[in-house]
Sequence to fold (211 residues):
Amino acid sequence: MKDPEILSRFDGRGRAEFLLGGLEGRHSDRITAIGLEFGYDLQATEMPSKSTVRLVFVRNDSPPVRQRARQSQERLRAGGPLLPMWDAPTARPGTTRSVTAEEPASARRGVTTYEANGAKKFALCVALLSVGCFVVAGVLRDRPGAALAVLVVFAVPLAVTAVLIPRWMKRWYEKNRQLVELHDQQRTGQGGPPPPPPASPDGHPHAGDGQ
Fold:
């Protein structure tokens, strides 16, 4: 999916949907990033089938977000980048790293999915796989070597993973949530980059525009 097609969906309408099938799913983060940059919030990530994903966006009419969307439109008309980079703090105090707009978009989709589904379903699926492996090991009890292999390679590791999944996913969620909150502050002008500078006399934006 090309950028102009994505932009055409974020044209001021109240709701925008993208139904992505197969390899189109790789565009999800970029679509989300463009939507956020131009004043839309990701409302839901749905999976109508195993091979398709639907992204549902709604227009955010809060004044800070609308201002941010106007600044993005002005930057684009001036020849600036569609998705600017921004600086996020690192674990080392006083240091930052450059972040693409797609990274917080990916984090936002993860937060939305976690808040909608939690970790229980995933943990339950892994636990059921573990139980199935224990059953297989029981069936193979007349073949001790094969039964032990199933237990050691599959059943026990899956059982441990099922127990740890909620903790792992909680940590992953908190990391993503912090990145999303920081990005929201940047989008609303609370500590993020300023509006793009005016174009130079030759009509081109100054170097670093949108950074």
Summary: The first strand starts at residue 15 and ends at 21.
